[in-house]
Amino acid sequence: MRRAGHVKPARPLDDGESGGRRWRALAADALRNLGAMRQRSLLALLGIAIGTAAVVALISIGENAREHSMRQFLAMGADILTVQKDFSLSGRPAVLTRADVDRLRALPGVEEVAPLAMLGVEIRQGRTRLPSAVAGVTPEFFALVQAKAAQGRTLTEGDRAATVVVLGAGLARRLAEDGQPPVPGSLLRMGGYNHTVVGVLAGSTPNPVLPLDVDSTAFVPLSGARRVSANSDITNLVVRKMPGATDQAVRQSLSDHFSGGPHPRPVMVQSARQLIIAMTDQARVHTLLLAAIGGVSLIVGGVGVMNVMLMGVVERRREIGLRMALGARPIDVCAMFLAEALALSLSGGVAGVLLGLAAAAVYAWNAGWAFAPSVPSLPLGLGMSSGVGLFFGLYPAVQASRLEPVAALRGE
Amino acid sequence: MTILALDGVHKSHGRAAGAVQVLRDVSLDIRQGEVCAIVGSSGSGKSTLLSLMGLLDRPDSGRLRFEGEEVGTASADRLAALRNRRIGFVFQAFHLLPRLTALENVALPFLYRGVPPRLGRDRAASMLERVGLGDRLHHRPEEMSGGQRQRVAVARAVVGDPALLLADEPTGNLDSATARQIIDLFFALNADLGVTVALVTHDPAIAARCGRRLVMRDGRLDSAAPGAVA
Ligand SMILES: Nc1ncnc2c1ncn2[C@@H]1O[C@H](COP(=O)(O)OP(=O)(O)O)[C@@H](O)[C@H]1O
Ligand SMILES: [Mg+2]
């Protein structure tokens, strides 16, 4: 008899369970199962991908925007403060004078002070007429805001009485006549006088603390500002503090200068650092807000995952019963569906991260910023999508694991 | 030696008021190495009995012992482990997973044992050869005939070296020639591996071949033929 000769095979199976192998095999199984539900999976995957893309894109855009504005400040240095008349208070607005400039220069912690008269006039060159910001400045102004001449020169002490003008790079481009921007030696008509262009500045990014954008302003000597506009009072004082001086202290002594004495004058003192702090705070709030919006889309995607999984549980009752008959424990069934939900949402997450970075790159390119992929958005995007998958996959998975093997087999 | 013992088992389906008493006071012993046929008219409770014997369901009352262990009140995990290692199932409708190949279907029980996948596949391949499907390892169920599918299912049931093989009308979906081959396979496995077989059948010819017949009648084992030997 064959049976007599039968030797029972050794059964190493009863011991030697290997957890790692078990989970790896379960994961492979999950991926195969997902492939079978391709079409519906794809829809849920799309939801997760869009949600993740939104989070990643918004965070990247927010970060790039913040870096961009930081770069603007750093271009001119973060040591600039401005004093301007405070029009918000009742009473006569303060008058800023040349004497203030000298006295502020003597304050401790102050390195340089430049007066500024903001005017708005129409510039004419040949047939071109362009309303433009014009600033009456003293020679120190250019060094103070680190503006350099790309052609010609900036203003000097010798220009005090001359009808000369220095143009910002952007303004020069806009004044181009037949494709020829004004060059040193060109004549521009402002306020009824011909002004000779003596220099065109190198391009620069606007510094939010200044009352003007250097790039799109025409600069004339402060003493000649009256020729351009009837009202040529000093509107602002631009101050550079010494690198060692604290922002707070310099702001305080500037304020004290105007509020002290028998006739206090209301002024506003603003510093670059103050603005930087306010802007980063604001950017952080924006980033959080935008991330929350992305989170909502992720949740919508998560509900999609839950739907796919719940329908899968219903459709695969027989399979669940069969697997239980073959020895799957409730936790194995739960793990199978969780792994599927995780695989689904994680592949959506990967697609979403790529999509989000692409969107952020396009946005940055459009806005003229330098694009740098936001590093924390990668783990955040993947983490959020897999978290969503696990969270929304848990209910269907538990439902599946609670099926009775015999009922599941009948497919009721 | 008794492998499975039912003692005064009752089982009803459905909820309290509308409950249907399906098994009434069923007691039986399945002895190691035997081939046992369970026969009876449709609705007499054969499938219900088999699901209790296979630890897929629990009795309402009465005792159920498997290899000496009281399993009526065992945990779900314990029952799963016993089903995985000690029991094999064959169903009328085959119940193969359509997207898996024959080899993967047969290797499925090893997934729940933590057996290395390669070892599981090797054992699945040799079992498929054993049932005559050595040339169909990588075919999917839809590419196979009914008889071939049921062979795959039989291979899956015995690949884990179970003590008890349960089959619920395994030939119900097959023509008579193919059915004979499947039944031959059961007897061959019983002889080769020593696996105990209990199968539900409507076919008197098949029942006649089995060493023992249990007759179900309206939820009771017919005591007129208690463990009769052919
Ligand atoms: N889940 C269930 N709920 C209610 N009644 C059921 C259920 N399963 C089976 N039954 C009933 O129990 C009886 C026995 O069913 P079954 O064990 O499948 O019989 P057999 O396999 O002998 O045809 C039948 O009357 C059937 O309608
Ligand atoms: Mg039946």
How would you explain this protein's 3D organization?
Chain A: Belongs to the ABC-4 integral membrane protein family. The complex is a heterodimer of chains A (412) and B (230). With 412 residues, chain A is of the alpha+beta class. Helices cover 53% and strands 17% of the residues of chain A. Chain A folds into two domains: 23-71 and 278-409, no CATH class; 95-265, no CATH class. Chain A is built from 13 helices and ten strands. Chain A has a six-stranded mixed β-barrel with strand order 2-3-8-5-7-6. The longest helix of chain A is centred in the last third of the chain and has 44 residues, at 272-315. The two termini of chain A are 45 Å apart. With 230 residues, chain B is α/β, with parallel strands linked by helices. Chain B has one domain (2-221): 3-Layer(aba) Sandwich (Rossmann fold), CATH 3.40.50. In chain B, strands 3, 6, 7, 8, 9, 10 and 11 form a seven-stranded mixed beta sheet that branches. In chain B, α4 packs across α5. Chain A binds chain B through residues 1-3, 6, 8-9, 11, 13-14, 16-19, 21-22, 25-26, 28-29, 32-33, 35-36, 318-319, 322-332, 404-406, 409, and chain B through 51, 54, 56-57, 76-77, 80-81, 83-85, 89, 91, 95, 97, 99-100, 108-117, 156, 160-161, 191-194. Bound molecules: adenosine-5'-diphosphate and magnesium ion (MG). Magnesium ion is lined by residues 46-47, 168 of chain B.
Task: Give the topology, please.
The complex is a heterodimer of chains A (412) and B (230).
Chain A: H1 2-5, H2 19-36, H3 38-76, E1 80-85, H4 98-105, E2 110-125, E3 128-137, H5 140-144, E4 149-152, E5 164-167, H6 169-174, E6 187-190, E7 193-201, E8 217-221, H7 225-228, E9 236-241, H8 247-259, E10 267-271, H9 272-315, H10 317-325, H11 330-367, H12 377-401, H13 405-410
Parallel strand pairs in A: 3-8, 5-7
Antiparallel strand pairs in A: 1-9, 1-10, 2-3, 2-6, 2-9, 4-7, 5-8, 6-7
Chain B: E1 2-13, E2 20-31, E3 35-40, H1 46-53, E4 61-66, E5 69-70, H2 76-86, E6 87-91, H3 102-111, H4 117-130, H5 146-158, E7 164-168, H6 176-193, E8 196-200, H7 204-209, E9 212-217, E10 220-221, E11 228-229
Parallel strand pairs in B: 3-8, 3-9, 6-7, 7-8
Antiparallel strand pairs in B: 1-2, 1-4, 4-5, 9-10, 9-11
Bound molecules: adenosine-5'-diphosphate and magnesium ion.
